[in-house]
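Title: Comparing notes on inverse folding

I've been comparing how different people in this forum approach sequence design from structure. To keep things fair, I'm posting one structure and asking everyone to reply with a full sequence. Here's the target:
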């Protein structure tokens, strides 16, 4: 087993960043599994297709589901309830098989870092690789 970390900066309040190639560069085993995990509660890690229309649709859907029309109770603390609620709908981690030293994703799949409360600096994504 080995552990690594990717540090990322976001430039927008909501931003989707494909981190597949960054993860593949860090893989140090031939086969097994990778766990990609964020300790940030306003950040998501998801697997899906990297198609611009779909990514725009995700932003629209999340904005519609978690809208400004409500007075969110968590906003009394730090005014970012919508970011936390969107994170509840997504995921903070993904576990993906590794084959031939790379993530064994489907043809259209990518791993995304989704910033929900940016812009932010030094967002950590923890990588754990477990060999067969």
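Reply #1:
Here's my take.
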């Amino acid at each position: 087993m080995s552990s690594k970390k990717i540090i990322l900066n976001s430039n927008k309040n909501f931003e989707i960043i494909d981190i597949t190639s960054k993860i593949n560069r860090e893989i140090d085993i031939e086969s097994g599994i990778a766990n990609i995990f964020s300790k940030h509660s306003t950040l998501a890690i998801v697997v899906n297709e990297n198609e611009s229309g779909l990514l725009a649709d995700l932003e629209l859907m999340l904005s519609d589901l978690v809208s400004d029309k409500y007075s969110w109770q968590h906003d009394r603390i730090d005014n970012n309830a919508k970011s936390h609620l969107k994170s509840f709908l997504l995921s903070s981690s993904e576990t993906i098989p590794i084959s031939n030293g790379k993530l064994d994703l489907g043809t259209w799949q990518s791993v995304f870092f989704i910033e929900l409360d940016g812009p932010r600096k030094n967002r950590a994504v923890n990588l754990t690789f477990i060999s067969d």
